[in-house]
Amino acid sequence: MGVVTSGLLAVSDAADESIPMGVPPRSSLVIVDQNDTPRLADASEADEVGRLLHDFNTEFETPSPGADVLSERLAVLLDGESMFAILAGRPAFAVALVSVRPNVWYSGRVGLLDELYVDPSRRSEGTGSAILSLLSDHALTLGIDAIEINVDEGDIDAQRFYERHGYSSIEPETNERAFYYHQELRAPD
Fold this sequence. Notes:
Distance between the termini: 20 Å
Low-confidence stretches: 1-31
Radius of gyration: 16 Å
Mean pLDDT: 84
Order of helices and strands: EEHHEEEHEHEE
Shape: globular
């Protein structure tokens, strides 16, 4: 696995200087089919979230404990305050999963976009942008001060997507590139 960069939210929209630093630009995208509009998922939709996360890992040949195991875990996690999910479509064809945690560097909390996945047959329709817009809006209501995203070094399309939405792999204070390091302390179940 290659080096993974971390996208830190520290942006201002060049087209609108009235948008404060740290607030992502909003998408002008309009979803035509109301059934496709992204929505916050609740614990009762853990099966759909788990299925899509499993599909994501399968598509990119990454190990997965299986949709059933993920669904079981998500039923508990989505019922608490440390995680939220966004789904698009009925049945769902896209998902975002966000972990929320305190962080000493912010007065509020930080969200980590664990996954953002759109079924291959529904890509390039603006769903990912609409999901990011809802994610930003919901994060602000939860008192989240920053969103972090880990992106594989070779995934240039994802890097471009997030950069287009105001995320950066450059630390604003130091102007240095940010990296993510990982070490498993236990093998996944």
